[in-house]
Amino acid sequence: MGQFYQIPKHLPMKHEFLIEAAEQGWWYCAVLPENKCVITFFTDSDIASQLRLNQSKGWNQHLAKSQSIKPFVSAMKSTETHPWIRQAYSHFLPPTSINNLIAVGDAACAFDPISSMGIGFALSSGCHGACAIQMHLDPDIQQPLACYQNDIVQQFMTYMEMRQNYYQIEKRWPDSMFWKRRHQQITEKSDSLLTP
Ligand SMILES: Cc1cc2nc3c(=O)[nH]c(=O)nc-3n(C[C@H](O)[C@H](O)[C@H](O)COP(=O)(O)OP(=O)(O)OC[C@H]3O[C@@H](n4cnc5c(N)ncnc54)[C@H](O)[C@@H]3O)c2cc1C
After folding, report:
1. Does the chain have fewer CB atoms within 10 Å around its N or its C terminus?
2. Which ligand 1 atom is at minimum distance from the Cα of 125?
3. Rounded distance, CA 126 to CA 174, Å?
């Protein structure tokens, strides 16, 4: 969830990006064109409900507890009446039984924003998907769509390991549900997702 803010013209901008871990999630702040700035807080939906982060009062109370983000945003004015909410969870589309269908970008895999992989993957999977379709039209090339799908599975498995490694670094809040959930070991093997 997040809010856009207007940066006063006289305010010197020292940072373009800020990330701050918190007990219930993590903050992300980015300076945007036209003297705007976006502040987002990444957490789980049940925690967001408990903290009433979709309401300005809850959002501002929570923001006031941050160490780096609050001072950064204190002189700025929000451009919206309420914080907005977006889904940003990890997701993988298993191989489909529908013939001649492949997914690219977020439709194939969506990544935790901490990874900053979403846009890069959308572009690369779009290019690889286009090549796979081209090869599919050549009867001499064996199963290019299955190869494409397997490559996506491998990328997602690599990402899951990387994500877990990132979250393991933060150990300040062992009792926090947000961090507990992310510290859990990956027990499910994704091998079954690979197409023959
Ligand atoms: C809060 C947040 C922060 C993020 N931060 C980052 C970041 O810092 N770095 C990063 O790399 N990624 C980030 N991402 C992820 C990134 O935005 C996505 O991974 C990326 O945009 C996926 O590209 P896409 O083309 O697959 O999908 P999209 O960008 O979602 O494009 C899909 C398009 O299809 C359109 N569409 C949907 N349904 C239909 C329909 N039926 N008919 C026609 N059109 C349709 C949609 O309107 C949309 O324009 C973030 C995501 C969120 C939510």
Report:
1. C
2. 26
3. 39
